[in-house]
Design the sequence.
């Protein structure tokens, strides 16, 4: 399948490692010119250099997108350098585990800011540009735990990931007439070097073998390339009828019927 993404401008938040890096590489391999960001300047520089060595057109901007004003600057710089934004992938995200009554206002504020508000701000700035262009594809990286209960200790994560899917749906309805598609992707457990699942597998191989047996019908974790493949499809015009939806990339890990 030809994705026809050559020279499209893509902005991917949090591409210095993990799933974000996989998405940057996936889009760049299809010809996109990709701008990405992270807080740690050294790690970003190294990741971008590695990707450039592979021949990918990738630029890194050091920023903390939870800071007020940072989202606007990120989008302004992208448009100043590349003239437009065709694809936005809202990938940055984190977790704060804890029983509901042990979680503080600060815990909620921090994660709401990271998992939701930062994406609202980046998307709002990008939508302005996409409306001028009359085209665009916006993708939110949610989680299967935005679609079903993740279990104890995950009230903040579940809430923010569900809210993201909900917001994306309304954005899709509002922007459908303007050539802008908006979708969410819900990964299951994704393992990559240095990631949280990788660390747990190294620290507790027996426990993780049991987890795999009980929760992962394919008998393995997902890879970031598998998430990137879905994002690349959604970014492209091959997904022209796909908007306002959330797609699991989870190897049947989730139990939800919808
Ligand atoms: N891994 C999984 O199994 C899994 C499953 C389902 C959903 N997800 C979702 O997929 C997304 C990526 O997960 P991941 O596991 O790849 O995460 P990760 O390994 O922690 O990578 C996060 C990336 O975002 C950057 N980042 C974090 N906070 C930032 C901020 N405030 N401003 C700018 N950049 C920031 C990080 O760089 P710096 O730290 O240098 O800023 C890094 O590049 C998240 O939304 C996560 O919830 C992951």
Sequence:
């Amino acid at each position: 399948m030809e994705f026809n993404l050559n020279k499209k401008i893509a902005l991917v938040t949090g591409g210095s490692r993990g799933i974000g890096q996989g998405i940057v590489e996936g889009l760049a391999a299809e010809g996109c010119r990709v701008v990405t960001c992270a807080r740690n300047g050294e790690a970003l520089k190294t990741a971008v250099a590695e990707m450039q060595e592979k021949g990918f057109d990738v630029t890194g901007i050091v920023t903390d997108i939870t800071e007020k004003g940072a989202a606007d600057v990120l989008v302004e710089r992208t448009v100043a350098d590349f003239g437009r934004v065709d694809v936005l992938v809202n990938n940055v995200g984190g977790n704060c585990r804890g029983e509901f009554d042990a979680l503080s206002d600060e815990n909620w504020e921090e994660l709401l800011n990271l998992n939701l508000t930062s994406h609202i701000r980046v998307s709002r700035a990008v939508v302005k540009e996409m409306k001028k262009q009359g085209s665009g594809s916006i993708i939110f990286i949610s989680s299967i735990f935005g679609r079903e209960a993740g279990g104890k200790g995950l009230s903040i994560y579940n809430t923010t990931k569900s809210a993201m899917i909900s917001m994306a749906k309304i954005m899709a309805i509002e922007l459908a007439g303007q050539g802008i598609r908006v979708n969410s992707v819900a990964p299951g457990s994704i393992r990559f070097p240095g990631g949280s699942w990788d660390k747990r597998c190294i620290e507790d191989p027996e426990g993780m073998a049991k987890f795999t047996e009980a929760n992962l019908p394919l008998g393995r974790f997902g890879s970031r390339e598998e998430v990137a493949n879905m994002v690349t499809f959604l970014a492209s015009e091959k997904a022209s009828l796909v908007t306002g939806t959330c797609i699991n990339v989870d190897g049947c890990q989730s139990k939800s019927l919808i």
